[in-house]
């Protein structure tokens, strides 16, 4: 009986594994280059009001630096307490397919794969204070990430 219990427990654990995506997730804004010296990853909830507040600022920031200096990747991170957020995130992936082919909350930001203590209220000037020193001495280049490119992403607009 104990052997049967162990077998069922092990089988159940292996079947409950979250499926690993076939490609890396994320939407690259404005064709950001994989070899840009600065990579900004933003984990945004599609219905999160703070993500909605931060989105125009980080997209303006990416536009000002340009895709050869800053690669902005938006990662959808629907939170369970934003009603229908998961469904909206799935819908954003569908729209992207039709048109183009360590996180605990949103918005969360990473620069060159390092978590940064940034807030949705940050201005472009605040972001530039963080990014300009990185561009001043970018002796190493970033490795390609292989994410999907889109401009069809704006959080917090479905309510």
UniProtKB/TrEMBL annotation:
Q: Which residues form the signal peptide?
A: 1-16
Q: Which residues form the Thioredoxin-like fold domain?
A: 32-90
Q: Name one Pfam family in it.
A: Thioredoxin_4
Keywords tagged on the record: Signal
Coiled-coil annotation reads none
Q: Which InterPro entries match?
A: Thioredoxin-like_fold, Thioredoxin-like_sf
Judging by the UniProt lineage, the source's domain of life is Eukaryota
Q: Which residues cross the membrane?
A: none
* CDD domains for the chain: DsbA_family
Question: Mind telling me what this protein is named?
Answer: Thioredoxin-like fold domain-containing protein
In its UniProt entry, the species of origin is given as Tegillarca granosa (Malaysian cockle)
Q: What is the lineage of its organism?
A: Eukaryota, Metazoa, Spiralia, Lophotrochozoa, Mollusca
